[in-house]
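Sanity check. The docking grid for 3,4-dihydroxyphenylalanine depends on where the pocket ends up, so I'm generating a full predicted complex first rather than guessing from homology. Inputs follow.
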Amino acid sequence: MLDKLEALYKQFQEDVIKLHKVADVLNLKASLLGKKGALSEILKSLKDATAEQRKTIGVKSNQYKKEIEDLVQNQIKKIEIEEINSKLEKNKIDISLTDSVLEKGLQAAGLHPVSTIQREIEDIFLSMGFDVLDGPHIEDDYHNFEALNIPSDHPARDMQDTFWFKDKKHLLRTHTSTIQVRGMQGRKPPFQFVGPGKVFRNERTDATHEMCFHQLEGMMVGENITVSHLIYFMKTLLKEIFKKDFEIRLRPGFFPFVEPGFELDIRWKKPGKGESKHSGWLELLPCGMVHPNVLKAGGVDTDKYNGFAFGLGLDRLVMVKYGIDDLRHFHSGDLRFISQFKSY
Ligand code: DAH
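Predicted complex below; grid placement will be based on this.
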């Protein structure tokens, strides 16, 4: 019986390494170790053997069983690696440079028009004595709403559909006005700064809405700041960006963090011929005189100081400047769009 066992094992050893399918390996294993398998049959027949025989054959067969299991696992691993390699071979991607790339030379990347305009505006404000500040994308309720005079029960929260984190305490900032709060803390008036960056809203995407867009916040705090200061800085900004003077108008606008709040419009004619729906007054710049509650949250003495603030939509500005009609181009990654704005 021992010889028979050994012969079975030897045969298995030879056969298993010739197999290239997992199912075949498992079938071969079953033909030995399965209920009706050859090795199981031998073990069943042990009941007629002597105690001595039972012991030696029992020990041996357990040893073979374990070795068979190991051989099966090894072979399956081998087959899986073979399969992966053959898939890789079939789906090979040619990463060598194509002739056309070699002929044209490598195309250097350029800045996105939103980054370009952001840098331009930063330079304009730096030249006027403003600091440029940054702020986190992940904010808390306090910096995004509460400190900006938007308490939790305030209907103005509905104006900004928000991505909340599961803890219900953190969110993706809906506006760069958060930078006002952070900027005021640790500064003593007079001070002035701008804060550009990405903002996020739970918006359905269309030609003028994206869930991620860019704003540039501005704030100036000092003694006797007036709406005239605000108008002066906004006019200077527009003149520097568009390289021409604009007729502007202020309309009342509601934002809880400013009082009074305004919408600053410019008299605009869309690039190209003829009038279009984009010609006429164009709403461009929400702004206002900073609400005392906001100044207080920033630790500013409101008996002595006041200020103005504004929030410029950078994507919109780029659209206006270049006559772009669909915001979705900005994140499309389409080189035909992006390569029209090459600048470094
Ligand atoms: N944070 C406002 C928004 O995203 C924009 C804004 C309005 C900013 C008025 C300001 C401001 O600083 O004074 O809708």
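Relevant for the grid: The pocket of 3,4-dihydroxyphenylalanine is lined by residues 175, 177, 217, 255, 258, 261, 286-288, 309-311 (CB under 6 Å).
Also worth noting: The first strand starts at residue 131 and ends at 132.
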